[in-house]
Write the C-alpha cells for this entry.
Amino acid sequence: MDRKEFADRLLDTKYDYEYYENLYPERKLDDKAMVTRYAPSPTGFVHLGALYAAFIAMKMANQSNGVFFLRIEDTDQKRSIENGVSKIITDLANFDITFDEGVSLDGEKGNYGPYIQSEREDIYKAFAKKLIMEDKAYPCFCSEESLKEDRERQEKHKERIGYYGYYARCRNLSMEEAIQKIENGEKYIIRLKSKGDFNHRFKFKDEIKGKMELPENDQDIVIIKSDGLPTYHFAHAVDDHLMKTTHVIRGDEWLSSVPVHVQLFEYLGFKLPKYAHISPITIEDNGTKRKLSKRKDPEAAISYYHEKGIPNKAVMLYLETVANSNFEMWMSQNKDKDVKEFVLDFKKMPVGGSLFDYDKLMNISKNYISTLKALEVYDMTLKWARQYDNDFALLLEKYKDYSTYIFNIEREQKKPRKDIGYFGDVKNQIWYMYDELFKPQEYEFQKITDKKEIKNILDTYLSIYSAGDDKDTWFNKMKECASKLGYAGEMREYKENPDKYKGSIADFSTVVRVSLTSKANTPDLFEIMRLLGIDRMKERIKMVL
C-alpha cells in the first residue's frame, strides 16, 4: 500500500487538493492591496474588541484598494447559536462595518466561497490527504481516557501538557497497523506530524509588535476531528491560503498560535500571510489592568452602547483614537475632511494594551453630537427612546417641532453647546421643557434664597418682559431691572465694588432661570423663554411663588 492509497482509505473526498488550488486563482489586485478578513464564530455576541479588530481589518483593506471579507468559522458546532450569523452581520452593519465579499444577509457574494467553514469540509480533507501522502500527518486512535492519563502524568511530573514526543502514541504506527485498527472499528482523528523542537526558536515579524522570537511547535495538533470537520488552526491555514488573505489581523491572544500556524503554512507549501496582532483594550480593576471581559464588564458588549444611546459613529471615532496615536491630531487639523481619508498605520498602533477611557469616549460623543443638526438629534433621540423609554418617545412624537427647536438651542453657531453625551441622557437634560414632566422636587436657587426677594425679582421682571423683544433688547431690560432692585447691571461693576450691590446680574438672572426650569445651569435663557411663551412662564413663576 502506498501513501496515496493510505490517504484515500483515511479520508474520502470528492476532489483532490490540486482541484481546489485551481478553483481559487490569485486575485487581480495591486501589489500593495491588502486582503483582510473578519472571521468570527456564530455565537451571536460581538464585543468591543471584536468590533475594534473588524474595523482595523476593514480600514486596512479599504485604504489599500484591497478586499475585506466575512468568513464564518463554525467548525465548533457546539458553540453556534440560532441566528448567530445574522446577528453578527447586523451588529457590525450598525457600526458601518461592511464587507466586499463573504457571508451576507442575502446569501454569499464573492468568488472564493463557500465562506462558511462547515460547508468546506471536502476542501479541508483534500489538503489533509496531501499531508498524509507526504507523511506530514497521520491517524490517531487514542481514546479520551488515555489522553487524560497522559495529561495527569504530565501534570504530576510538571511537564508541558500536550501530544508530543513520547506522548504521541500513534505517531509511529505503520500504515498496516492503522488500517487494522480502522477495520476493527476504532475511531480516529488526523494529527499533524510535527518535526518542530520546542527548545528551538524561530524569528517572526509581526506588523504591529515588530520582530519577535517564538519557540517552534512540537505538538502533533489535531487537524481533522472525528466528525470530519477541521480544527480552527488547520481551517485557518487552508482558508487564508485559498482566499488569498494577505494580512491576518486579530487579537494578540492568538500570538501563542503563531508557531502552529507558521508550521502549517510551511508543511502545506503555502505562502505565509503577514500577521498583525492587536493589543487588547484593557480596564482598570482594583488598581490593576486587565483585558476588557465580556463576562465581567458591561462595556465589552456593543449592546451597552446601544442601551445608553452612545452614537455608533462616536464609538468608531473612539476606536480610531485607540488604533492610531496620531488620529486626534489629524482630526483637529482636518476638520473639514471625512475621517475615511485618515490613513491607518500598523506602526502607530499600541504594542501594549490600551486602557478603556470612558471620559474620552464621552468627550468624543459630545463633540460629535454637537455637530449634528437639530432634526438629526431629534430623530436619533426618538429612535433610542422608542426602544428604551416609550413614555419619552410619545412626548417627542407629540411635540416634534417644539422638541426640534429645543435641540436647536445653542446648536447652529461657531461654538455649539456640548451638553449631550448620549441619547439616554437627553431626557435628563431637557425634561423641564415639557409640562408633562415639569414637577420639580426642588429649585436650585443659589445665592438668593429669600422668598420675598425672589418674589420681588420675578414680579419686576414679568412687568417688563415682552415676547417681541430681540435678544439684545431683552437683556438690556434684564439689566435695567436688576439695577432698579440694587443689583449690578454689569459684571465688571460688581467685581470692582461688590459691597455696593445686593449681587450681580448673574444672581438676578439665576432667579429667573431657576423659576422657569428649576435648574441653575441650562442652555440659553432667552431661547428657553421664547419656546415656553409668556403664559407658561407665568404659570411656572406662580408655582414658585
Remarks:
- The chain is about 45% helix and 10% strand.
